Amino acid sequence: MKLTRYLIAIIAVFGLTQCTSDFEEINKDPNAILGDQISAKYFITGTQVQLFAPNRFPYWRAQLIHADRYAGMFCFGFSGSWWSDELGYTYNSGYTDAAWDYFEGYNSTINTYLQLTEPGGDLENPLTYATALIMKSMFYQKFTDTFGQVPYSESGNLEILQPKFDAQADIYQGIINDLTEAMNLIGSESSTGVGTEDLGENDLFYGGNLQQWKKLANTLKLKVALRALGASGATFAEQAINEAMAQPLLSDETDNCLLPKDALIDQWNSSCYGDVWYNFGVGSDWTVSNLVINYLQKNGDPRLSKYAQPAVGGSEITIPKPESDSNELYAKRKNFILAALTDAGAEFTETTNAQGESVISMAENTYYVGQPVRMGSRMPSYARYEFFSKPAQYIIQAKNEGADIAPEIVLTTAESYLMQAHAVLLGYGSGTANTLYREGLRHALLLWDVEEADVEDFLASSPMANLDGANDMEKVVVQRWLANYTEGFEAWSIVRKNGYPASLAEGISDFDIFGPGNLNGAYPQRMRYGSSPYSTNNDNLQQALSSQGQDIQATKLWWAK
User: I need a labelling partner for 366 at 20 to 30 A (CA). Which of 46, 197, 219, 485 fits?
Assistant: First the structure.
């Protein structure tokens, strides 16, 4: 991805004083930040990093084990994997608690930034406060879209130890109100001030450029309004869509909101995929799904090599026959895997060894093959690791090797245009859906450093490059989903709201192949609440459950009903 900004590690260290025996000399750190220099810019960096690139524990358990896989992007369950691909679809309190605790813990981070910069705050600045409102909006959109009702209106109030859980309709209305207020506060201003008042390079999104923050807020407003549209009580959604479509949105490459990775930050402060990939060996690796690979490959999408690596392949890959499987079941499961290879266009030969097991020969590092999602606990011996594509090296790059690491996707220009096309298809705005859609595709490819010539070739020749009146909404939604590759929380929400990719949203039914989890094969609609609110805020939690529904993964959120 083209990064025009670089991560500046900011460590605010107050000068320590050391007294001599007669208190006449004080040793001062020449790099220390003095009390009268303290500014909100020393808080924004952590506010951004902790939300989009937290430490390894939630990065692994919340993002990779749940969101990225519910989104249909990544898979476990191959030979050598620690888990079947059913993991996450079967409730595990340890994994769910990691997600809940990550979001709940972020409350203190965002509330500190809000309270410092708000009217009357110790670092009062209405322009910096506008960025705090936008960060708050991004946080709560992510939080509520994961669990449903969450503490919102009373969160951060130090006098309320047990905040109520707010209805999603109220949270969404509050987000839109905050975004509107933030944009009004920014107005025509370009920065939060001068000197220490300027967020500058401490702002990892836009280097302190408030007009880009304003476009970010308006694009987020469009996103939440589109998600709320059609839900019970979402009377605000249509007006918010119209307002957003009438104001500047993310529109060029420099507007991409990305969080760059700093290779030096410890994984227990800020993590990346590589911190999981290389720490534990093959057991914790993952593959790219057949949904992602096939959409790209079958439509001539040049992002294929940017998203994934060719399967390792090999001359003698044996598919062992488990003793527990009948000959008929062995043939069924083996043929299912081989059908995935064929569907991906991989050429291979099959022979049989003395034990009656299939032995596959497939060219090495040649074919892109995605792994079918949600395979059950009996499938890893069939799903040989060598058959499937791993994520591109750029995505799983380890730190401290002198190589670039893919940044975190926050909100992109590509999705801005695709959402505008989405809105126009629904009857909002005045643009042309196909023009907006194609511009979204262009920026989606440019985001991953696809060469201009390849972009133009794709737009000229791919069956996915135009809206032609047949399945237009499906095309737009699938491209929004693909544009959020590696940002599983948002991709998962896109599927739940819109029902595409359809084969993912429909769930699974053949339990000889797939793992039903606690959902009996249905698609997960939310994550279960963590353990902590049951012990610390149970009365309010129970009120939320009485209106939202059972605390299970199958309970649909307000905007998905």
Answer: 485
pLDDT at 35: 53
The residues with which 446 forms a beta bridge, in sequence order, are none
Q: How far apart are the first and last CA of the chain?
A: 36
Q: How many CA atoms lie within 13 A of 405 on its CB side?
A: 24
Rounded CA-CA distance 364/148 in Å is 45
CA 227/CA 497 separation, integer angstroms: 7
Is residue 26 helix, strand or coil? Answer: strand
pLDDT at 263: 83
Distances (CA, A) of 20 to 17, 23, 499: 10, 5, 70
3-state secondary structure of 387: helix
Cα–Cα distances in Å, from 152 out to 8, 66, 149, 162?
A: 31, 23, 9, 11
Contact 315, 114 (CB under 8 A): no
- Residue 3 has a pLDDT of 38
The β-bridge relationship of strands 314-319 and 358-362 is antiparallel
| CA-based nearest residue to 484, from 209, 210, 223, 298 | 223
Q: Which region holds residue 517: left if phi is over 0, alpha if psi is between -120 and 50, else beta?
A: left
Can you give the length of the chain in residues?
Answer: 561
Token couple for 2: 């083209």
Per DSSP bridges, beta strands 314-319 and 74-75 are unpaired
Contact criterion met (CB below 8 Å) for 79 and 312:
no
- Residue 493 · residue 560 · CB < 8 Å: no
Do residues 73 and 88 lie in contact, with contact meaning Cβ atoms separated by under 8 Å? Answer: no
pTM: 0.94
CB 219 within 8 A of CB 250: yes
Tokens of 342: 């064929």
Six token digits for residue 523: 């698609």
Q: Please write down the HEC assignment for all residues of 140-200.
A: HHHHHHHHCCEECCCCCCCCCCCCCEECHHHHHHHHHHHHHHHHHHHCCCCCCCCHHHCCH
CA distance 64 to 87: 11
Task: Identify the helix (H) or strand (E) that includes residue 298.
Answer: none
Contacts 24+ apart (CB under 8 A), 157-164: 162/536, 162/537, 162/539, 162/540, 163/537, 163/540, 164/540, 164/543
User: 3-class DSSP state for residue 541?
Assistant: helix
Query: How confident is the model over 465-503, as pLDDT tens digits?
Result: 999 999 999 999 999 999 999 999 999 999 999 999 999
Compute the distance between CA of residue 426 and CA of residue 404 in angstroms, rounded to an integer.
39
* Token couple for 476: 């737009």
Query: What are 300's two structure tokens?
Result: 């001539």
